[in-house]
Amino acid sequence: MLLLLLGGAALPARAQKSDTTIIRYSGQLSGQYTSGGVNRTLFATAHSVTLLRGLHFGAPVTGSFTFGKQDGRLREREWLLNATPYYWKGHFRFYGIGGYERSNLRGIDNRYQVGAGPGWAFYQDSLGREVAVSNLLLREATYFQDGSSRTVARSSARLKVAYSYRVFTFNSITFYQPNLQDFSDYRVTHTSSLALRFTPRFAITSTYAYTFENRIPEGKPRDNTNVTIGVTYNTK
What we know:
By secondary structure, the protein is mainly β. It is built from no helices and 14 strands.
């Protein structure tokens, strides 16, 4: 298993001046190959561009693509694009979101999302350590590969934890997204990573990712888990 990550994190900069515009880019590239009992190949790339204006405004745009085969059969061909402009002042945040997704793994031809909502940082410091929550209201339209479609309103609750100590950095983001008309229809997404820095820019990183969606076309898996170990390059 091999993972290579290129890029840096985009966080509100406390030292930024009120008339300053900053553009930040980060990129990630990962690959995996296994053979034997299970033959699996995986390629994934993710990119983000963030525009920071003054002390309180940011506009991140992120995109990712994942392609994977298992025993010679296509399994993952996943596209995800999100724009999440925000207003930030002290502990308070207010987010907007526009998103697009395609997923062969979950049988999704096209999914569109728009929404907005508040957030609050219970703890934050100049080292980037943070404990924060947010809750957005989403309008979501999904068109599945079997020809069916559905439009729902969701709540999107997020818990974010970021912590660093000496050469170690831990990051965790968890989403819980129920249908507001039927709470038995929900999604859960969790990603956590632990990095060991061996230079200011490079680190060895272990990442755990889990997704669950309980209403998808018949025959598609409702959950998926990936564990990766690799190298991170950070431009900060």
